[in-house]
């Protein structure tokens, strides 16, 4: 006799490993680093803020390369789609259930992912050239002119608000899926596994080696370290 768990699985379909470990670790490390960056800026602990921001920079650089050479569902080419695919997804998602199922990011979520990554990259990059005009300078401030520092400092303060809005939208979308669509996206981002609706068929997405992810992470950290050292 099938156990309750197996029976549920048979009713709903096969479990597939959709998110690899590097992508999941990236996500939750990013959440922690961005949260520390925001809270430390709020409380004026700028030494911690800069460390957290540099960590965000390393993580985003890693993710951009992993988006090209990483596992199937992590690749931009796999999930970034044009307006037609987005319209088509919106139609299917109104029907709900298996019609709306995607292995990785859906085409609308993909827009959010790419925008978040780009905004975090610009935010962390501009932070390196940001000064509070009193005590604290980002590590690359000595390399830039006063006008560039003023411009990038303003950008850094302005874009922070955009990032708050975007994170709010992102988390709201995840909870909309959970509470309205009854589609839990959080569990797969923790366990890596999604249940494939019973009537759909799909092969398990191809996974890239974790050692490659480690090498990319080390190279990203090395690059940021070298750039910071360049400023002395
Ligand atoms: C600082 C706050 C956050 C940032 C910057 C952030 C950023 C991101 C990014 C960049 C991705 C794409 C992942 C990838 O493909 O590598 C993503 C996906 C995701 N995030 Fe977040 N996230 C944040 C907070 C959260 C929170 C609090 C939750 C849960 C409540 C969450 C749940 C998810 C889920 C479920 C996905 C996958 C969505 C899907 O299946 O398409 N995120 N997030
Ligand atoms: C994605 C990562 C980052 C986020 C979300 C972020 C966010 C913020 C926020 C919200 C503020 C306060 C703005 C205000 O007072 O209105 C701030 C200020 C600041 N940030 Fe960042 N930041 C990030 C990365 C960095 C990095 C990498 C550095 C430098 C290594 C940096 C250096 C600074 C400095 C020096 C200030 C003080 C500016 C002032 O008080 O006028 N930030 N940041």
From TrEMBL:
One GO term describing the cellular component: plasma membrane
Signal peptide interval: none
Keywords, comma-separated and alphabetical: Cell membrane, Membrane, Transmembrane, Transmembrane helix
Location, primary (coarse class): membrane
GO biological process, one term: respiratory electron transport chain
Segments passing through the bilayer: 25-48, 55-74, 99-122, 158-180, 210-231
Compartments (UniProt record): Cell membrane
Annotated membrane topology: Multi-pass membrane protein
MF terms in GO: electron transfer activity; heme binding
UniProt cross-references to SUPFAM superfamilies, sorted A to Z: Transmembrane di-heme cytochromes
Cytochrome b561 bacterial/Ni-hydrogenase domain ranges (all copies): 18-192
Keyword Iron recorded: no
Superkingdom as given in the UniProt entry: Bacteria
Protein name: Cytochrome B
